[in-house]
Amino acid sequence: MPWLPDFLPCISTLRHLRLAIGHRGSDLGVENTLKAVEGAIESGADYAEVDIQLTKDLVPVAAHDDSLSRMAGQSDSINELTLKELQSIPLSQYGMKGQVPTLEELIQLSQGKIRLLIELKAVSEREKEPLVDQILALIEKYDFQKDCILMSLDYELVQLVRQKNPALKTGYCMFGNLGETTVENLLSLDCDFVVIEENMVSNSFISACRQAWLPVYVWTVELEENMRKYLDMGVNGLISDKPYLVKEVLEDYPSQGIPSAEDYYFS
């Protein structure tokens, strides 16, 4: 359960924080690269979302796919390459060039400039604990606890993070057909926020999340009209390749700023 204030106001009076979150950094660089996160920083985004998985030598790196086929035209799997091998392969996207960065490089770049939404990519059972351990070690090394939140499509990974570091804010990416989502179902989730796709947004789901005190982030929102629609419905954050556009839209909506520590969710 997320932290709750001593006095619980009526649900209708909650002032939800509205966040601009750059999807895979931003579209101002090759996805998940330092340049993409620099684009999120330049856009004034509150967070940059990055996808993290392990190399063969157990280094956390930012890459969405489990292979390089889409980004480099090679079939090599990320977890079958060492960091040195991986970073020797140039990436290409929309006419831009890039290199797979380490999570450590991303943290170093982000410090004092932007916060990170770290997505733990689904991996095999034997890789789960090493992935979590390596990520948490870097967060501790750089005292980055208050400058990041973590999420995953794999609920076991979310639970593993919470077991190892309960102080970190964690979210569950709800994917596919939600079916009937009740307040009771949401309260049973051991996480601090939920993330859903655009096609899953509904007034009933958002209402249930509000009653369960769960902030809702939506991905991947690219059209301004949809950004405004979801904000009007009460979502708390928009994950977009265009964080600069989200920031423009958010100028028309009251904001409490970037939350930290116990005041993360509510003011």
Please characterize this protein's 3D structure.
The chain is an alpha/beta fold and 267 residues long. It has a single domain (13-253), classed as Phosphatidylinositol (PI) phosphodiesterase (TIM Barrel, Alpha-Beta Barrel). Helix content is 32%, strand content 19%. It contains 10 helices and 11 strands. The chain has helices at 34-43, 69-72, 83-87, 103-110, 125-141, 155-164, 183-187, 203-211, 224-233, 243-250; strands at 19-22, 47-54, 60-62, 91-93, 96-98, 115-120, 148-152, 170-174, 193-197, 216-219, 237-240. The protein has an 8-stranded parallel barrel, surrounded by 7 helices. Helix 1 (34-43) packs parallel to helix 4 (103-110) and helix 5 packs across helix 6 (155-164). The chain is globular, with a radius of gyration of 18 Å.
CATH class: Alpha Beta
Write down the CATH topology: TIM Barrel
Number of strands: 11
- The gross shape turns out to be globular
List the domain count as a whole number. Answer: 1
Brief account:
The protein is α/β, with parallel strands linked by helices and 267 residues long. The protein has helices spanning 34-43, 69-72, 83-87, 103-110, 125-141, 155-164, 183-187, 203-211, 224-233, 243-250; strands at 19-22, 47-54, 60-62, 91-93, 96-98, 115-120, 148-152, 170-174, 193-197, 216-219, 237-240.
